[in-house]
Amino acid sequence: MRASDRAYRTLRTEVLDGSLEPGTVLQEVEQATRLGVSRTPVREALRQLAADGLVDASGRGAVVTALSRDDIAALYELREALEAKAAALAAQRGDAVPFLLIRDRLLGAPQLLAQGEPGLVPYFDIVDDLDDAIEEAAANPFLATALRSVQLHSARIRRFSRHNPERLRAAAGEHLLIVEAILARDAELASQATHVHLHMSLTNALATAPGTVGEADEGTALGPRVA
Amino acid sequence: MRASDRAYRTLRTEVLDGSLEPGTVLQEVEQATRLGVSRTPVREALRQLAADGLVDASGRGAVVTALSRDDIAALYELREALEAKAAALAAQRGDAVPFLLIRDRLLGAPQLLAQGEPGLVPYFDIVDDLDDAIEEAAANPFLATALRSVQLHSARIRRFSRHNPERLRAAAGEHLLIVEAILARDAELASQATHVHLHMSLTNALATAPGTVGEADEGTALGPRVA
DNA sequence: TCCGACCGTTGTGTATACATTGGAGGGGTC
DNA sequence: GACCCCTCCAATGTATACACAACGGTCGGA
């Protein structure tokens, strides 16, 4: 694998899981040293992250972007537009088979979630596979690109709902409803069920998320951190 | 301005206006020579174009992407989801002033279009300013990013409607309806008016566009061209 | 003591040299 | 004659060197 890809994936993972907090300044030389590659692939990775909206490259050094509560609300507005459309298209066009499989897996989700922490990974695998199945069924490359972008940012929020099993159980039910609507080829219902799911999800996210995702509580006057 | 920005803008303009046709292979050394810069900024520009979806960078050399009729339909599906949402948000949140100004300008659009070719630039300026005003009024940075992406691809299609004054006059009326809905703070109407406009626009685009936008009719067996 | 200018340091932008990979073409063999 | 393999070449990937611009610190003057 190319060094630039490794650099990109490493940095992206660190931004998504919060080990690189918002406000962190990523400097080319510094990251090149840390990642054991030269500046060239790091530059490329930082440009990519900037295109993703995960860092802000204006000026000197790339700064990891913050996700304010307003940003989360805005992200969900976009998700609603995109995912409702995607669900509707999937209901119209999609092949039933993958959704049948996902339905079965979703029916087992409450058991998974009852296991606590170890069940979370397989649970989120189901949700991710559902996203992929809808994206595939919608058969629209432009929509797919836009969906991947919002999924990227949504991943930064997900870690807050990880510790809310009650919400996850409810979400599993909402996902099931979406799958049923797609299987019934009811585009309108699929769209509305998605709308409902995102509304509940946003409510939970805003209730769970701190003022600004990942922003350090200590030392706001310390200026940007350099990692 | 940075050399990489100049390279990016030059290449992007050439892709959008069709002077670099789909299938054209853009090689780093070649473009570096042509644009009078080194490979480094060209690499950056090509990466950016790939992120935009204007070139396909898989494998060796970046290939200018084609826009099939299916792609155009898919693009309009995404536009509908995004622009309907944006118009609705603009109706809910937007400041009326910019839309009042645009309404006045749109009322003069038929006169502009009656001038033929010289009126086209100011006409499309009005449309672009309306897009910007809606984007601004929607006050959603994620939606704004997605909108800019579809506008980029839409620009590749626009040159087909340039020579259809009748359609442009109708489109001006549809835009006016959207503006009126936003001014009336009627989110549902703004959304539906956008839906209608895009439906008509797509119908026209598919009627006007060749099988694959910009694809050479001669020599499909010649393999990719190198520019 | 405070303000401003100059210089040093640091970081990014660009160019170029070197490494590596992928592919095309030719030759050999089955 | 066709297919496979080997070799060579060209284009991309990576590293590094150089140039320029911005920020900070210090020194001098008011």
TrEMBL record, chains A, B:
Q: Name one Pfam family in it.
A: FCD
Entry's InterPro entries? GntR_C, TF_FadR/GntR_C, Tscrpt_reg_HTH_GntR, WH-like_DNA-bd_sf, WH_DNA-bd_sf
Q: List membrane-spanning regions.
A: none
Keyword field: DNA-binding, Transcription, Transcription regulation
HTH gntR-type domain mapped to chain residues: 1-67
One MF term in the entry's GO annotations: DNA-binding transcription factor activity
SMART domains given for it? FCD, HTH_GNTR
Q: What's this protein's name? A: GntR family transcriptional regulator
